[in-house]
Prior knowledge:
It is built from twelve helices and 21 strands. It is α+β, with helices and mostly antiparallel strands. The strands form five sheets. It has an eight-stranded antiparallel sheet, covered by helices on one side. The protein has a five-stranded antiparallel sheet with strand order 7-10-16-17-18, covered by helices on one side. It starts with a helix and ends in a 6-residue tail after the last strand.
Amino acid sequence: MHRIEKYAELLIKVGINIQKNQTLVISSPIETADFTRILTVKAYEAGAREVVVRWLDEKSTKIRYDMASDEVFDEVPEWMKMFFTDYSKMNAAFLTISASDPELMKDVNPKRISRQNKAMNQALIFWRSRMMSNLNVWCVASIPTLAWAKKVFPYAENEEAMESLWNAILKSVRVDMDNPVDAWHQHQKDLNNRMDFLNNNNFKSLHFTNKLGTDLTIDLPEGHIWFGGGDEGPEGQLFIANMPTEEVFTVPHMLGVNGKVYSSMPLNYNGNLIENLWFEFKDGLVINFGANNGVDTLRELLETDEGSKRLGEVALVPHDSPISNQGILFYNTLYDENASCHLALGKAYPTCLKEGSSMSLDDLRMAGVNDSLIHVDFMIGTKDLEIVGVTRHGSHVQVFSKGNFVIGGTD
């Protein structure tokens, strides 16, 4: 089987794990149409009831941002809200192809992008809450587009750049191995070992330091749970929300983040690159921030709502990982976050708190779980990152040393 077909089959059978008579909704850039059609065939062959494709065109989106009437960026048509709500109620699976030009939107007014994102997130809050509570299965993956490939490999000819990015992506999702499905099952076992280590220690807080200047303490709420790799839908349907994935993650206490943190990679946020960003936190709130490039976009992100200035995720990724070891800056959060420890501003996953999926927003906030219209990851991992955990009993445990996991090591 051709490696691209193997990749499509992996996304359908392992990423989404489509079930007989289940509807699949694919959101796809028009540039990836050929691959999306392969996905469609693989889904039907696996027993899908229907495959619905939602085509996206970022170049048309940029024209709209540049030329449309100002008021439209506070609006979302009712049909779009109904589209996502109705399919989520049907127990549909949602597969998103994430592939964009990292710099296409760099000259667009960031206020327009921020307003549109806020309006969209408000309109789709029912669907978003179901995704983040695993009430529907979902997966985010990617394939190369020319603009993206040329950003990652700027000195290569077009065909060479595309081939290089394909190779990097397929290696990151283990399609280069003889049996990718078996390789993912082994990878899940490795992630389970890390989750067990973190959950068994039941840390009260984590302290992050490195030579970039990061010196950050993150409290973890009582009842927090570490997850990684596969998730489980409401009827026991196993799925992998991100392919690739190297992280184990949990929920930070929204009032318990203190210190300063520096990014280790640029953040591509809606086609705008934010470079060398940093945040200073006090009692969970961003009280100061900066960036060498894209600071206006960063400011708009932070001003989305009250929860956008607090953390909703802490994720641990070893520096020695298949993505990091390729030495490539992907300019795509799906890949860069899986090459580096990262944090996320905004909404937390309720599933990361014991019984959190059944709790009200007020109860989640009381437990320290942040809520927001956004969830934006930024990378902080480095080869010299040190992480020390403090248990509920006051013991200090070395979690990371020189950028990688340490299993055991209490003082």
